[in-house]
Amino acid sequence: MTQLPRIALALFLCIQAMPAQSMVSAAHPLATDAGVEMLTAGGSAIDAAIAIQAVLTLVEPQSSGIGGGAFLLHYGSQDDRLQAFDGRETAPKAVQSSHFLDASGQPLPFLDAVPGGRSVGVPGLLRMLETAHAEHGVLPWHRLFEPAIRLAENGFTVTPRLAEMLRLDLPLNAFEPMASYFFPDGEPINAGIQLKNPALAATLKQIATEGANAFYEGPIAQAIVETVQKHGGLLTLDDMAEYQAVERAPVCLVIARNNVCSMPLPSSGGMTVLQILALFEQAKAAFPEATATLQTHLFLEASRLAFADRNEYLGDADFVDVPVETLLSDDYLEQRAALISADQSLGIALPGLNSGQSAASASKLINHSTSHFSVMDSSGNAVSMTSSIEMPFGSRLMVGGFLLNNQLTDFRFDPAAADGRPHPNRIQPGKRPLSSMSPVIAVDSNGQPALIIGSPGGTRIIGYVAQRVAAILMQEQPLKTAVDAGSFINRNGKTELEEGTQAAEMADALKSLGHEIAVQPLTSGLHGIMRLSDGALRGAADPRREGVVGQTPAQSHQE
Ligand code: GLU
């Protein structure tokens, strides 16, 4: 044996002896455990994602579930391929442009539109997971539902956050069976009690044995349609049966030598996060001496400009023309970045193409719903998935042990602007409402996924995610430091600073630059994984919610 092969053999044995790491970061310990269980059983990142999501349906019912939709970004290590899977809800075929208008043609108050059947879109989650599993699953489909079925039958401990969400100042006990499940004696259940969900166990068993068809056709679909129609919605069996998940090309830009990729339309998340990062990178280069506070100002200005475009131009590109390439082109971004001043805020930014007035963000309530999780398996495949039923507990309609989404309220309620121009995010039959969900995978210059991250938070998702990607890739902050740091948000209106954090300490300095300031809680739910240059993984779970990181070989690992 010559020298070289012996070294190669030694190296091979050493690699063999060191089991490859895999990791999960998700919003609930039982969901993380389910992911780790699949990874330990030899499952892929997709297998883990499906098990995580099935458990989240049960244990974090306020946020996401099989009655809702999701976006999933997948990195395949074998061919370095990134894919975006779109499981967004669609509007029923029977909707009209007046869907969210009252009898006098005025937009309904947002909270009036949420509960009941009107807000329910065709749930896309299961079809999307099945599509991704057909391509990237290793374990059999039915195996992935075992942890959730076990927990639904045996019971799980209600967390403080679920109990707190049930005490939100919203009408949550208006409909059966949600009322008797969560409010058994007319009072919301308490943290610490054991809760079983036999109806969900039965639903999941059917889906586990028969596949997603069991959901989109037959008795489960029938029950969904009946419930929605009984409560004033337009969903039909045809809408259910015709639902399709869509594989799309991710949107990507090179930021700080990494190829940062996220979800394309119908999520505004990817394009807006990328615009913010590109504008911020250019502004930072233009003002190299900027202090930390001034850098925050530059970031917030980048965010204003990106949101001005988002609010004016973005909608489901399968239905409306959106100038995606222009909005992400070097020339355009250069022009836009040149508007950023280090001395004075832009105030309300205008959109950058020739149409449009001012585009301040419609300010919805603070959203406590939605869930993000990140997974990397031992072969280096990665999943970044954000999943949602929209508002906490969605439409409040419960069928088969799960809640139906209210995702249609993500459409603009008024179909046209004041000047009569139809809005790109108006409701149309079969269309997907514009989302802000921003699952990110950043691939480093060696072609390896370096960062997997995302967050819930309604339209604030975009800022939560962009801030962390910037901190990690441009400012080389460790993942956990970036996740824990106070948030600063601008959606082309006032600047929001997270109460009780260092971000809030910048209030006076930012005010002097012309920002209108609101100091308030900002409940992100960032769950991320970072892969260091030596291949070691680091995970972080947002301390503002209840998530944890899990890994194989087993040992809880937060940086
Ligand atoms: N429905 C929102 C969206 O798709 C997400 C809601 C949330 O994050 O709470 O953008």
Question: What are its keywords?
Answer:
7-stranded antiparallel beta sheet; 19 helices; Glutamine Phosphoribosylpyrophosphate, subunit 1, domain 1; 559 residues; 34% helix; disordered N terminus; binds glutamic acid; 6-stranded antiparallel beta sheet; alpha+beta
SSE arrangement:
Elements: H1 3-17, E1 22-26, H2 29-40, H3 45-59, E2 69-76, E3 81-87, H4 110-113, H5 125-136, H6 146-154, E4 156-157, H7 160-165, H8 178-182, E5 194-195, H9 198-210, H10 213-216, H11 219-230, H12 237-242, E6 246-248, E7 251-255, E8 258-262, H13 269-286, H14 292-313, H15 324-327, H16 330-337, E9 371-376, E10 382-388, E11 398-399, E12 402-403, E13 440-443, E14 449-453, H17 461-474, H18 479-484, E15 488-490, E16 495-498, H19 507-512, E17 517-520, E18 527-531, E19 537-541, E20 548-552
Helix pairs in contact: 2-3, 3-5, 3-6, 6-9, 13-14, 13-16, 13-17
Tell me what you see in this structure.
The structure is a single chain. The protein is of the alpha+beta class and 559 residues long. It is 34% helix and 16% strand. The protein has helices at 3-17, 29-40, 45-59, 110-113, 125-136, 146-154, 160-165, 178-182, 198-210, 213-216, 219-230, 237-242, 269-286, 292-313, 324-327, 330-337, 461-474, 479-484, 507-512, and strands at 22-26, 69-76, 81-87, 156-157, 194-195, 246-248, 251-255, 258-262, 371-376, 382-388, 398-399, 402-403, 440-443, 449-453, 488-490, 495-498, 517-520, 527-531, 537-541, 548-552. It starts with a helix and ends in a 7-residue tail after the last strand. The site of glutamic acid has 14 residues, from loops. Glutamic acid binds at residues 367, 369-370, 388, 390, 407, 410, 435-437, 456-458, 461.
